[in-house]
Write a structure and sequence with these properties.
The complex is a heterotrimer of chains A (343), B (310) and C (385). Chain B is an all-alpha fold and 310 residues long. Chain B is built from 13 helices and two strands. Chain B is 70% helix and 2% strand. Chains A and C meet through α1, β2, α3, α4 and α6 of A and α1, α2, α6, α12 and α14 of C.
Amino acid sequence: MRRRHTTWLALFAALMMVLAACGDSTDDTTATDDTEASTETTAAAAEPFRIAIVAPSASNDLAFTQSIVDAVDVIKGEMGNVEVAVTDGTFVVEDAAAAIRGYASEGYDLVIAHGSQYGGSLQEIAPDFPEVSFAWGTAADTFGIANVYSYEAASDEGGYVMGVMAAALSESGTIGVVGPIEVGDAKLYVDGFAAGAVAQNPAASVNINYTGSFGDVALASEAAQAHAAAGADVMSGTAQMVVGAVGVADEQGILWFGTQANQTSLAPDIVVASQVYHWEVILRDIISNLQSGKLGGEIYSINLANGGEVIEYNPAYALPDDVKQLAEDTIAGIVDGSISTGG
Amino acid sequence: MNEFFTQAILIATVASGIRLAVPLLLASLGETFGQRSGVLNLGVDGIMLLGAFGGYYTVLKTDSVWLGLLTGIGIGIILGLVSAVISVTLKAEQGISGIGIYLFGLGMSDLLFQKLVGTPRPVSSFPKLDIPGLSDIPILGEMLFQHSMIVYVAFGLVPVSMYIINRTTFGMNIRAVGENPEAADSLGVSVVRTRYLTVTIGGTLAGIAGAALAIDLGIFQQNLTNAQGFIAIALVYFGAWRPAGVMGGALLYGFVNSLVLQFKTLGIIPRSWSDIAAMAPAIITILALVLVARRFRQPAALTKPFTRGA
Amino acid sequence: MATAETNRRSRPKFVAYLVPLAAVVVALGIGAIMLGLLGASPIEGFRAMLKGAFGSSDALIETALKATPLLFVGVGITIAFRANVINIGGEGQMVAGALLATAIALALPDLPAVVMLPTVLVAGIVGGAAWGAVPGALKAYYNVNEILSTIMLNVVAVQLMNYLLRGPMIDPGELERGTRIPQTARLQEGADLPLLFGGGRLHIGPLVAVLAAIGAYILLWRTPLGYRVRAVGLSPDAARYAGISVKRTIVLAMTMSGAMSGLAGAVLVFGSESHRMVTDGSTVGFTGSAGFNGIVAALFGGLHPLWTIPASFMFGGLLVGGIALQRAVQVPSALIMALNGLVVVFVVASDRWKKRLQEQPVHLDDVAPNPPPPRETVVDGGGGP
């Protein structure tokens, strides 16, 4: 046994080395030289502006990851000469760290670490690449590092608006919310939604069910069934597993409010509105800062006021005019500060 | 507390437990066949995921849930055969090859989804079937007999599996091959053929389980099964390699899950305890086995490849 | 390393050694086709992969770091498998070890560095050992199969992690800012794994893992306990007849196996980029599937602790290279996962062809020409459970 294993491992290793050597000899050394590529961020116009995204789920997930990929696409459309690289599906935090480090060492101008869980790693990586700018979200901390931006979404604001609408539309007074784990953006949204619903109808009972998983679609579906059994006639939820809950809502004719991306396509009959993130609003600021030589140090937030958060109504759903007016009033109230989301 | 015992909620909780049990039941029934004949397949979750994508994609393209189910079956057969080639003919280490199939299924189903579909799009689900007569029984009818068709299929397979394993020649061969392949071989039972059949049955049922899950939810997403295939394998041990026991395990796991969800919804379990409560199905499954303290022995030849004259 | 042993039947043996290599090539060949279908250049992709895994000192360091948890888990797996216990609870045991180690580091922030590091590593060992001892005891005393209990305990571990990291152990700063990211604060620097060779990212983790592998080898083949473990694995009845307590041995084997995984978890935390524990809500987000991939590494290494070392390194290279490949040719990372699975399947599946080729020259192999360690050759990768 021993010899067999030795030898194949040895051969495998040898093959790897040989191939690696081939790779080295034919390749030039752009990737290994850390700093050269990006010394001048305001270099010649012919040089493309290079943006890399590292994100936890699929880039077309109709939720968190897609929101940043779409935003960078918008930026690309506006600026023209932009090169975009994406490493998606990187839920393993250490793998994300490796990818962030990799892009930084390849001299990307802006590396976007699109996951709260990546922050701790970024704090260690960013100082090693002072010429590269990093953006981290959703978070509200730049660690005092000069080349780190952070960005967050005031998802409680959109949540509050939709909570108000939900309470106004609910006939039973029972509203169901499906969440993953009570953390971060999910908690912010859910708390805002619940606050809005209760503000609109103090007698409303808002049932909140955190299933304990970001990925378990079947559990999210059954959580929605439980809400339905408890009498909910309006529901909402956040994170990628809610697609299961939307299906149940559709089947039972329960109204749905979406967040992070426009979820109308999942159930055109019952989706009332979605809170949609437009990160391009803050990306524009970050990039113009970058081009004037400021690589970080700012905390950005998208919200209803700056247009980074937009409530997109489903045109196919006949939203009563008074409820729509209520929503618009609530948005105006949040924007001018007369309404607090309680967050 | 009283709130919980309204009739509607009680019915919904039981019905929800049954739905949650279905994919687990299908997959673990299949795994039972393989293990009874001595083959452990840890790749169940990978087969489920590919079956789920295949089923979902077919329904998306054809709008026929039955064609979708058929695709799940086809994918299950193919991957079952592949598993059989690997573990029976090539006699590979069963644990490790299953992990390979799991990783392949996890990656491949996601890749295909991203390339062929992109963003999640809903598809139609299995039609509901109210069993005539039975569905009209108060309470019980609503709990048990107003489900989508795949639910009856899954539970119907339990007696079928019991019959096959305990009452047919094929079943006798399965048990013989799983207990003492040498003796079975000397009596003229083809160990290889028997194991090919059982592993393929296992793959088929895993494919069905995946397709059933995806079509019943009407959606696909990366890692849709969320490791249910592994739970299904655990339930085979819970059920001590007997279809009825496996069904008991699947129902227990499903019911505890649905109860926890219902308690969370009604606020009986406070929100700050939601993750602690989510441990309940796993812990209760272990405890149940400890308390029942059964002394079933596993098939003697489980995980041992067979070589004639070895 | 190409063995210096002379063999009279060198031709068939040589062919046999090419089989697993061919298997890797075939798997990567399928990967190349998939890359082509995705519109990416396979040559460019594989070049990036090799370069990313083995092409520079930084790459080799990344590979060694990636291999470290695989090796710890793999070593633990060899111990359990030698006692005929299948431990597929590595994921949960890693989490348990990491949680206890992190909790200790948070609870005793004022420990001096000399005491801190050993304390947290031991805490990792204890946490993992406890998470492994439970299924061991359930198997030995309650007849609860270890596959069932380890799978279930993986489910429990992830919820425990989510609860602790969003609740009692959360970084107070996250509560102040209201961002509530489920992670601990930056842990004490005294608990950082010391770096080797001054700068860079290479910490002592890989070294500790190699030492653990050597320790496991000594334990299994040079101590009475190891003898008992192997005896129980080979034949529980014979072991019982020889006066060995089978039940206690099974519990011990699972405990040691869990301890190794727990240490892997602790090393992941204190050797991570972030030097803190963070969850994305799933086990794999923390472990990177090392609890499963470690099993693969152990079996590639023939369930022998020492051969698990190079096997882990190669496997780590494959995983690190996969990230580089994804980055270079911009394909979905799901492809890397699928490729990972294909390599495992093909190499395992080819094992028997290799053996068959080796078995043709009858009995020649049995004359073991390597003198030194008196090692068991009974289990040859196919004999674990």
